Amino acid sequence: MDKRRVGEFSVSAIGLGCMSLSHAYGAPPPREQAERVLKGALDAGYTFFDTAAVYGLGHNETLVGEALKGRRGDYVLASKCGITNAAATERGIDGRPETLKATCEGSLKRLQTDVIDLYYLHRWDRSVPIEDSVGALAELVAEGKIRAIGLSEVSAPTLRRAHAVHPIAALQTEYSPWTRNPEIAVLDACRELGVAFVAFSPVGRGFLAGGVRDVAQLEPGDFRLGMPRFQGEAFAANLALFDRFADLAREAGCTPAQLCLAWLLQKDEIIVPIPGTTNPDHMAEDAAGAEVRLSADVVQRLEALVNDRTVTGPRYAPAMQASVDTEG
Fold first, then answer.
1. Which residues are catalytic?
2. For a Cys staple, 122 with which of 46, 74, 83, 263, CB 3.0–4.6 Å?
3. Which parts of the chain register pLDDT below 50?
4. pTM for the full model?
5. How far apart are the first and last CA of the chain?
Protein backbone atom coordinates (compact mmCIF):
# COMPACT_ATOMS: atom_id res chain seq x y z
CA MET A 1 0.00 0.00 0.00
CA ASP A 2 1.17 3.57 -0.69
CA LYS A 3 2.52 5.52 2.27
CA ARG A 4 1.63 8.87 3.81
CA ARG A 5 3.17 10.98 6.56
CA VAL A 6 1.74 11.36 10.04
CA GLY A 7 4.23 13.47 11.98
CA GLU A 8 7.55 11.64 11.92
CA PHE A 9 5.91 8.39 10.82
CA SER A 10 5.42 6.82 7.41
CA VAL A 11 2.10 4.95 7.50
CA SER A 12 -0.12 3.07 5.08
CA ALA A 13 -2.33 5.42 3.08
CA ILE A 14 -5.35 3.74 4.69
CA GLY A 15 -5.27 2.86 8.37
CA LEU A 16 -7.47 0.57 10.43
CA GLY A 17 -9.96 2.01 12.89
CA CYS A 18 -10.32 -0.64 15.59
CA MET A 19 -13.33 0.72 17.52
CA SER A 20 -16.01 -1.52 16.01
CA LEU A 21 -14.18 -4.62 17.23
CA SER A 22 -15.21 -3.69 20.78
CA HIS A 23 -17.74 -0.91 20.82
CA ALA A 24 -20.54 1.20 19.34
CA TYR A 25 -22.01 -0.91 16.54
CA GLY A 26 -23.86 -3.56 18.52
CA ALA A 27 -22.30 -6.72 19.96
CA PRO A 28 -18.56 -7.06 19.24
CA PRO A 29 -17.55 -9.91 16.93
CA PRO A 30 -16.20 -13.18 18.35
CA ARG A 31 -12.58 -12.98 19.49
CA GLU A 32 -11.32 -15.21 16.67
CA GLN A 33 -12.97 -12.99 14.06
CA ALA A 34 -11.56 -9.83 15.63
CA GLU A 35 -8.09 -11.30 15.55
CA ARG A 36 -8.53 -12.26 11.89
CA VAL A 37 -9.31 -8.63 11.11
CA LEU A 38 -6.31 -7.29 13.03
CA LYS A 39 -3.72 -9.84 11.91
CA GLY A 40 -5.10 -9.87 8.38
CA ALA A 41 -4.81 -6.10 8.21
CA LEU A 42 -1.08 -6.28 8.92
CA ASP A 43 -0.71 -8.92 6.20
CA ALA A 44 -2.77 -6.75 3.80
CA GLY A 45 -0.42 -3.79 4.20
CA TYR A 46 -2.02 -1.71 6.93
CA THR A 47 0.66 -0.15 9.15
CA PHE A 48 -1.48 2.34 11.08
CA PHE A 49 -3.83 1.09 13.82
CA ASP A 50 -6.17 3.36 15.77
CA THR A 51 -7.66 2.51 19.16
CA ALA A 52 -8.66 4.39 22.34
CA ALA A 53 -8.99 3.86 26.08
CA VAL A 54 -12.76 4.38 25.89
CA TYR A 55 -13.42 1.74 23.20
CA GLY A 56 -15.05 -1.03 25.20
CA LEU A 57 -13.71 0.70 28.33
CA GLY A 58 -10.26 -0.79 27.80
CA HIS A 59 -11.33 -3.90 25.88
CA ASN A 60 -10.13 -2.62 22.52
CA GLU A 61 -6.65 -1.71 23.70
CA THR A 62 -6.36 -5.11 25.37
CA LEU A 63 -7.50 -6.82 22.17
CA VAL A 64 -5.00 -4.93 20.00
CA GLY A 65 -2.17 -5.55 22.47
CA GLU A 66 -2.83 -9.27 22.68
CA ALA A 67 -3.69 -9.93 19.03
CA LEU A 68 -0.66 -8.09 17.65
CA LYS A 69 1.80 -9.13 20.35
CA GLY A 70 5.18 -9.86 18.83
CA ARG A 71 4.55 -7.60 15.82
CA ARG A 72 4.81 -4.21 17.53
CA GLY A 73 7.55 -3.11 15.16
CA ASP A 74 5.34 -3.67 12.13
CA TYR A 75 2.87 -0.84 12.70
CA VAL A 76 2.35 2.68 14.02
CA LEU A 77 0.09 2.61 17.07
CA ALA A 78 -2.40 5.39 17.85
CA SER A 79 -4.56 5.57 20.96
CA LYS A 80 -6.51 8.25 22.81
CA CYS A 81 -7.22 9.67 26.24
CA GLY A 82 -9.71 12.17 27.57
CA ILE A 83 -13.08 10.40 27.23
CA THR A 84 -12.66 7.93 30.04
CA ASN A 85 -11.44 8.08 33.57
CA ALA A 86 -8.10 6.62 34.58
CA ALA A 87 -9.64 3.39 35.87
CA ALA A 88 -11.53 2.92 32.57
CA THR A 89 -14.79 1.93 34.26
CA GLU A 90 -17.06 4.71 33.01
CA ARG A 91 -17.40 7.13 30.14
CA GLY A 92 -16.91 10.85 30.63
CA ILE A 93 -14.84 13.70 29.21
CA ASP A 94 -11.93 14.55 31.50
CA GLY A 95 -8.95 16.53 30.23
CA ARG A 96 -7.21 17.17 33.54
CA PRO A 97 -3.47 16.56 33.29
CA GLU A 98 -3.44 13.99 36.09
CA THR A 99 -6.26 12.04 34.44
CA LEU A 100 -4.58 12.01 31.03
CA LYS A 101 -1.32 10.76 32.52
CA ALA A 102 -3.03 8.04 34.54
CA THR A 103 -5.04 6.94 31.51
CA CYS A 104 -1.82 6.67 29.51
CA GLU A 105 -0.31 4.35 32.12
CA GLY A 106 -3.32 2.08 31.80
CA SER A 107 -3.16 2.18 28.02
CA LEU A 108 0.50 1.20 27.98
CA LYS A 109 -0.27 -1.87 30.07
CA ARG A 110 -3.29 -2.91 28.02
CA LEU A 111 -1.44 -2.40 24.74
CA GLN A 112 1.60 -4.30 26.05
CA THR A 113 4.00 -1.64 24.86
CA ASP A 114 6.53 0.77 26.32
CA VAL A 115 5.49 3.66 24.10
CA ILE A 116 2.43 4.79 22.11
CA ASP A 117 3.42 6.33 18.79
CA LEU A 118 0.54 8.81 18.47
CA TYR A 119 -1.59 9.75 21.47
CA TYR A 120 -4.70 11.84 20.89
CA LEU A 121 -6.70 14.03 23.20
CA HIS A 122 -9.97 12.33 22.28
CA ARG A 123 -12.14 15.32 23.18
CA TRP A 124 -11.33 18.77 24.47
CA ASP A 125 -12.63 19.17 28.02
CA ARG A 126 -13.80 22.78 27.97
CA SER A 127 -13.38 23.01 31.75
CA VAL A 128 -9.62 22.60 31.23
CA PRO A 129 -7.62 24.99 29.01
CA ILE A 130 -6.42 23.15 25.92
CA GLU A 131 -2.94 24.40 26.78
CA ASP A 132 -3.02 22.46 30.07
CA SER A 133 -4.17 19.20 28.50
CA VAL A 134 -1.62 19.42 25.68
CA GLY A 135 1.03 20.41 28.19
CA ALA A 136 0.43 17.15 30.04
CA LEU A 137 0.78 15.20 26.80
CA ALA A 138 4.00 17.10 26.06
CA GLU A 139 5.33 15.87 29.41
CA LEU A 140 4.48 12.31 28.34
CA VAL A 141 6.52 12.89 25.17
CA ALA A 142 9.45 14.11 27.27
CA GLU A 143 9.14 11.00 29.47
CA GLY A 144 9.26 8.72 26.41
CA LYS A 145 5.80 7.26 26.99
CA ILE A 146 4.33 8.68 23.79
CA ARG A 147 6.08 9.85 20.63
CA ALA A 148 3.62 12.34 19.15
CA ILE A 149 0.47 14.24 20.08
CA GLY A 150 -2.85 14.29 18.25
CA LEU A 151 -6.22 15.98 18.74
CA SER A 152 -9.69 14.71 17.90
CA GLU A 153 -12.85 16.66 16.98
CA VAL A 154 -11.46 20.17 17.49
CA SER A 155 -11.78 23.40 15.53
CA ALA A 156 -9.07 25.33 13.70
CA PRO A 157 -8.64 27.91 16.52
CA THR A 158 -8.26 25.16 19.12
CA LEU A 159 -5.71 23.38 16.92
CA ARG A 160 -3.67 26.56 16.67
CA ARG A 161 -3.74 27.11 20.44
CA ALA A 162 -2.60 23.54 21.03
CA HIS A 163 0.08 23.67 18.36
CA ALA A 164 1.59 26.72 20.06
CA VAL A 165 2.23 24.57 23.17
CA HIS A 166 3.65 21.51 21.39
CA PRO A 167 3.69 20.43 17.73
CA ILE A 168 0.54 18.50 16.86
CA ALA A 169 1.21 15.57 14.54
CA ALA A 170 -2.37 14.71 13.57
CA LEU A 171 -5.93 15.92 13.89
CA GLN A 172 -8.73 13.37 13.69
CA THR A 173 -12.31 14.21 12.70
CA GLU A 174 -15.14 12.54 10.83
CA TYR A 175 -14.79 13.15 7.10
CA SER A 176 -16.51 11.48 4.17
CA PRO A 177 -18.56 12.55 1.18
CA TRP A 178 -21.57 12.99 3.49
CA THR A 179 -19.73 14.77 6.34
CA ARG A 180 -17.88 17.75 4.90
CA ASN A 181 -17.49 20.14 7.84
CA PRO A 182 -13.65 19.77 7.92
CA GLU A 183 -13.67 21.75 4.68
CA ILE A 184 -14.93 24.83 6.56
CA ALA A 185 -11.62 25.62 8.26
CA VAL A 186 -9.75 22.81 9.97
CA LEU A 187 -8.34 21.19 6.81
CA ASP A 188 -6.79 24.52 5.83
CA ALA A 189 -5.34 24.88 9.33
CA CYS A 190 -3.80 21.41 9.09
CA ARG A 191 -2.18 22.30 5.76
CA GLU A 192 -0.87 25.55 7.20
CA LEU A 193 0.65 23.89 10.28
CA GLY A 194 1.90 20.68 8.68
CA VAL A 195 -0.58 18.51 10.60
CA ALA A 196 -1.84 15.22 9.15
CA PHE A 197 -5.62 14.90 8.89
CA VAL A 198 -6.92 11.48 9.95
CA ALA A 199 -10.44 10.88 8.63
CA PHE A 200 -12.57 8.62 10.80
CA SER A 201 -15.90 7.16 9.62
CA PRO A 202 -14.74 7.68 6.00
CA VAL A 203 -17.56 5.54 4.61
CA GLY A 204 -20.31 7.35 6.52
CA ARG A 205 -20.51 4.93 9.47
CA GLY A 206 -21.11 2.11 7.01
CA PHE A 207 -23.98 3.84 5.24
CA LEU A 208 -21.96 4.82 2.15
CA ALA A 209 -20.59 1.28 1.95
CA GLY A 210 -24.11 -0.09 1.61
CA GLY A 211 -24.02 -1.58 5.07
CA VAL A 212 -27.28 -0.08 6.34
CA ARG A 213 -30.30 -0.69 4.14
CA ASP A 214 -32.79 -1.12 6.97
CA VAL A 215 -32.32 0.47 10.39
CA ALA A 216 -34.62 -2.16 11.89
CA GLN A 217 -31.79 -4.64 11.34
CA LEU A 218 -29.35 -2.68 13.50
CA GLU A 219 -28.62 -4.38 16.80
CA PRO A 220 -29.77 -2.90 20.11
CA GLY A 221 -27.01 -0.66 21.41
CA ASP A 222 -25.85 0.36 17.94
CA PHE A 223 -25.21 4.06 18.40
CA ARG A 224 -26.32 4.87 14.86
CA LEU A 225 -29.88 4.40 16.11
CA GLY A 226 -29.50 7.72 17.93
CA MET A 227 -28.07 9.59 14.95
CA PRO A 228 -30.48 11.85 13.03
CA ARG A 229 -29.34 10.62 9.60
CA PHE A 230 -30.48 7.10 10.44
CA GLN A 231 -33.95 8.06 11.61
CA GLY A 232 -37.35 8.25 9.90
CA GLU A 233 -37.74 10.43 6.83
CA ALA A 234 -34.09 11.48 6.95
CA PHE A 235 -32.98 7.87 6.55
CA ALA A 236 -35.39 7.29 3.67
CA ALA A 237 -34.09 10.36 1.86
CA ASN A 238 -30.48 9.35 2.42
CA LEU A 239 -31.18 5.82 1.22
CA ALA A 240 -32.42 7.18 -2.10
CA LEU A 241 -29.23 9.22 -2.32
CA PHE A 242 -27.12 6.12 -1.67
CA ASP A 243 -28.67 4.26 -4.60
CA ARG A 244 -27.33 6.93 -6.96
CA PHE A 245 -23.98 6.86 -5.16
CA ALA A 246 -23.76 3.09 -5.70
CA ASP A 247 -24.47 3.60 -9.41
CA LEU A 248 -21.57 6.05 -9.59
CA ALA A 249 -19.27 3.54 -7.88
CA ARG A 250 -20.17 0.87 -10.43
CA GLU A 251 -19.43 3.33 -13.21
CA ALA A 252 -16.04 4.07 -11.61
CA GLY A 253 -15.27 0.35 -11.43
CA CYS A 254 -15.11 0.09 -7.63
CA THR A 255 -17.29 -0.57 -4.60
CA PRO A 256 -19.10 2.27 -2.80
CA ALA A 257 -16.66 2.00 0.14
CA GLN A 258 -13.70 2.22 -2.21
CA LEU A 259 -15.25 5.25 -3.90
CA CYS A 260 -15.32 7.04 -0.52
CA LEU A 261 -11.73 6.12 0.30
CA ALA A 262 -10.36 6.99 -3.13
CA TRP A 263 -12.15 10.35 -2.99
CA LEU A 264 -10.54 11.17 0.35
CA LEU A 265 -7.08 10.09 -0.78
CA GLN A 266 -7.32 12.28 -3.89
CA LYS A 267 -8.52 15.31 -1.91
CA ASP A 268 -5.13 15.92 -0.30
CA GLU A 269 -1.96 14.00 0.55
CA ILE A 270 -2.28 15.03 4.21
CA ILE A 271 -5.44 12.89 4.56
CA VAL A 272 -5.25 9.35 5.98
CA PRO A 273 -8.64 7.58 6.20
CA ILE A 274 -9.12 4.96 8.93
CA PRO A 275 -12.16 2.83 8.07
CA GLY A 276 -13.22 0.27 10.64
CA THR A 277 -14.88 -3.09 10.16
CA THR A 278 -15.59 -6.39 11.89
CA ASN A 279 -15.46 -8.26 8.58
CA PRO A 280 -12.11 -9.54 7.21
CA ASP A 281 -13.41 -9.34 3.64
CA HIS A 282 -14.42 -5.69 4.09
CA MET A 283 -10.98 -4.97 5.58
CA ALA A 284 -9.37 -6.31 2.39
CA GLU A 285 -11.86 -4.39 0.24
CA ASP A 286 -10.94 -1.16 2.02
CA ALA A 287 -7.23 -1.79 1.53
CA ALA A 288 -7.80 -2.15 -2.21
CA GLY A 289 -9.40 1.30 -2.19
CA ALA A 290 -5.91 2.76 -2.04
CA GLU A 291 -5.36 1.54 -5.61
CA VAL A 292 -8.49 3.17 -7.07
CA ARG A 293 -7.97 6.30 -9.17
CA LEU A 294 -10.95 8.50 -9.90
CA SER A 295 -11.38 10.70 -12.95
CA ALA A 296 -12.01 14.40 -12.49
CA ASP A 297 -15.51 13.83 -13.89
CA VAL A 298 -16.34 11.18 -11.29
CA VAL A 299 -15.02 13.40 -8.48
CA GLN A 300 -17.12 16.33 -9.68
CA ARG A 301 -20.27 14.23 -9.96
CA LEU A 302 -19.68 12.62 -6.55
CA GLU A 303 -19.33 15.99 -4.85
CA ALA A 304 -22.44 17.33 -6.59
CA LEU A 305 -24.41 14.26 -5.56
CA VAL A 306 -23.39 13.89 -1.90
CA ASN A 307 -22.69 17.04 0.11
CA ASP A 308 -23.97 19.06 3.06
CA ARG A 309 -26.93 20.30 1.00
CA THR A 310 -28.12 16.90 -0.24
CA VAL A 311 -27.62 14.77 2.89
CA THR A 312 -30.58 14.91 5.27
CA GLY A 313 -29.98 15.35 9.00
CA PRO A 314 -27.02 16.47 11.15
CA ARG A 315 -24.29 13.96 11.94
CA TYR A 316 -24.89 14.03 15.69
CA ALA A 317 -27.87 14.53 17.98
CA PRO A 318 -27.64 17.78 20.01
CA ALA A 319 -26.14 16.22 23.15
CA MET A 320 -23.33 14.53 21.21
CA GLN A 321 -22.73 17.61 19.06
CA ALA A 322 -22.25 19.64 22.24
CA SER A 323 -19.30 17.42 23.18
CA VAL A 324 -17.25 18.30 20.11
CA ASP A 325 -15.44 21.49 19.15
CA THR A 326 -15.59 21.21 15.37
CA GLU A 327 -16.84 23.82 12.93
CA GLY A 328 -20.30 22.90 11.68
1. 55
2. 83
3. none
4. 0.95
5. 33
